[in-house]
Design goal:
Elements (H helix, E strand, L loop, with lengths): L1 E6 L3 H12 L4 E5 L24 H14 L3 E4 L2 E5 L5 E5 L2 E10 L3 E3 L15 E2 L2 H4 L7 E5 L3 H11 L4 E5 L9 H8 L4 E4 L2 E8 L3 E8 L5 E5 L2 E4 L3 E3 L29 E3 L11 H29 L2
Parallel strand pairs: 1-2, 1-6, 2-3, 6-17, 8-15, 9-10, 9-15, 10-11
Antiparallel strand pairs: 4-5, 5-6, 7-16, 12-13, 13-14
Helix pairs in contact: 1-2, 1-6, 4-5
Length: about 300
Amino acid sequence: MTDIIIIGAGTAGLTAAIYGARAGLSVKVIEKAFYGGQIISTSSIENYPGMPGINGADFAIALYNQAKALGAQILYETINSVNLSSDTKAITTSKGVHEAKAVIIATGAKPRMLGVSGEEKWVGRGIAFCATCDAPLYKGKAVAVVGGGNVAIGDALLLSDLCRKVTIIHRSENFEAERMQLEQVRAKENVQFITNSNVKEIVGADKIEGLIIENKIDFQITEIPIDGLFIAIGFEPDNLLFAPEVNLDEKGYIIAGEDCKTNLPGVFVAGDTRTKAVRQIVTAANDGSISALAASEYINNSVKYKEVASC
């Protein structure tokens, strides 16, 4: 029996592990892929207090090492099913069943796809979501970036230093990205902007060769040649595993307030996977600490209740 099982090893999950372990509780973190989550694809973190400019991978490594040093177990297993409604929480993975007194869900969110036919087959074969990871693969080539937020413009800025040409495709005339970063991209001679437009089709046989783009105003169709496509249109949660027991909103996010408590006793949520107004690295860390402290209080209160009941 473990005190706390944390599902997900991103910023929120690893922060929860640190706080849970520091509270003297046994902690397991279950991650299906690799620790760090979204942050590992960030080349430079500029908005985390006291650590301006730190590399995302270095930040994740520091979190991981801190959690491990405090005694948290990091397990790499795929979760097949969960039972969260009972007092004893059960997590069934590809390697067995893990039981815990409390569970913290910190699964984050996955990149949102364009929704065009056949795009799944190009993921990892021309479609990428991380310019920091995959930009070197397209050195000297032509690429497109879809999106208008900070991630999209940041990707375009990075790609412009390596690629022959970068085309930014955005559904609106206005961009959500920070003005300073947007101005840096606009100053690049090898960057082209296509606004008020959507990608309708990905062209190619054995590899991506181009995009079919439709203007939303005059419906004009344009084809541009590219070698790679970077999609940066946001993220979506992957909470179907918990849906039968945990309440979700219409977008699939786990419903919880700033206390990180779900509708189930002993089940908490942290990070981008919960309903919240702001999704940033600092708010993920904040959720991690709050959820772990709430889980610790829940466990301690449960122990006191059992002691009283047994008298």
